[in-house]
Alanine racemase C-terminal domain-containing protein
Amino acid sequence: MAAHAKSLVEDGGRVADLRRDAYGHGLLTVAREVLLAGADSVRVDDEDAVRMLSAEGLSASATTEPDMDPAVLYGFPAETGTHQRPAMRLTGRVMSTKPLRLGEAVSYGYTHRAERDTTVALVTGGYAQAVVRALGNRAHVELNGRAHPIVGRVAMDVCVIDLESPDASADEGDEVTYFGGAGPARGFLAEWMSATGLTAAELACAAGLHATRTEED
């Protein structure tokens, strides 16, 4: 995000739009980044947010119109189909794996049946963490540098991914990336948009509200 903010400032941007908790990315964290990059101020939702940032020595306004494109700042998918590196990365963890035989089904309602012998992994992340139910059978995750499909219905706190080989393996605790980062999942937010009909901003806001947030370098 620091690189995105710097490029916007270099293009003449002075005020960043940080309403709705900075589109789910965290108000205080993003305010520090964009002001450090050279922005004059940030636009926030209300005077309470202005006072909170002012107490941290950060310039904010609830009325100034922003002139920095949030799609660029947060790394949302571009209409051209090109993808900046998203500022947010949504992750889960492998809980377990098991073989799935030809014709066997997974998850509620059996909306997916294996077309061949394979291995599936149960991973953390469900609709309670903003992994939208519509993503079942329509989206992918990144695991160990490769993209794998989400299969079956997304449950409240977990979903199932197909490792696409009966000989595949994954260790308990291995990290799964739903979208973001620099690998295959870099452009997966666009896949989420297509599957759900929601905008990148709506999806990022939901993830920011429901998932545990940490900062990465």
Notes: Residues 4 and 152 are 36 Å apart (CA to CA).
